[in-house]
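Hi support team,

I submitted a single chain yesterday and got back a structure, but I'm not sure I'm reading the token output correctly. Could someone confirm the output below corresponds to the sequence I sent? I've pasted both exactly as they appear in my results page.

Thanks,
R.
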Amino acid sequence: MQNYDLDAMNARIQEDSGKIQQILNEAGKIIVGQRTLLERLVIGLLCNGHILLEGVPGLAKTTAIDVLARTIDASFQRIQFTPDLLPADLIGTLIYDQQKAEFYTNLGPIFANVVLADEINRAPAKVQSALLEAMQERQVTIGDTTHSLDDPFLVLATQNPIEHEGTYPLPEAQVDRFMLKVKVNYPSRTEELQILRRMTVEKIPKVKKVVSCEDVIRFRELTREIYMAEPLENYIVDLVCASRSPEAYQLEDLSTLIEYGASPRATIFLALAARAHAFLSERGYVTPEDIQAIGMDVLRHRVILSYEAEAEGIDAETIITQLFSKIEVP
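Hi R., thanks for writing in. Yes, this is the structure output for that exact sequence:
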């Protein structure tokens, strides 16, 4: 930290944090509660990472994504995933023009800054693979031509956990490409009453665009400059390594419950997300609380349980909670 000017970084963070808060405030005009959900969406924006939202129907997952997109002066596309969807419906295709006797490229809805993949688990594997390849490579190939996707490019996917008939669950290796997996819960009674009044009585306000794509790219670069001390880097690595080899961290009771631990993507995304969380907290440095606040959303889809854990009714969140409670905090 000798060469790091913390005061200068804090000043830069303070200067830009107002626009981040404007995004959250604009979204709050429509979305009641769900502050954690909105913050996770902004973290995905700051880290250039894709997000998977899971929750029962009617919890404003799609609405939250739509509202977030409207606060940014950027292109937005919503794709409703269905069993009859084809990869060409997503990325585009070559179309033959009979009059000109030549092919031309018709680009698909994936060519947008913010893409909502609604109910991603309803489309077959070919379509999921086409989307996930675009997410990873940030480009698609149509015919012999490779097309780069827009920057920023953010995929926000939703899935319904209570219906399995006619769905195609995402394989673990593909789920790993999502930076965060966020579980959306029911609102409180007070929030439910507010939802009732806002959606049935009050006039729904319009959401204003408060940031541009250039702002988002600048915020993203600033996020990567936020300071993380070496002990916190080691803390992140210990958390991830403990999910792979719990016995090396005196967590022998977890070794039979974990089939596969978190991938190196978890290490990268946990560090990036912790920096973004510090940004939201208007700080130019990361604290252990930042890592702990975002850790569950980064790790819950990356810790693969054994059959023994499933038989005992133990979920990934229980195991991750134990990891955080046992690994020493710097």
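A quick pointer for reading it: Residues 226-326 form a domain with the Helicase, Ruva Protein; domain 3 fold (CATH 1.10.8.80). Let us know if anything else looks off.

Best,
Support desk
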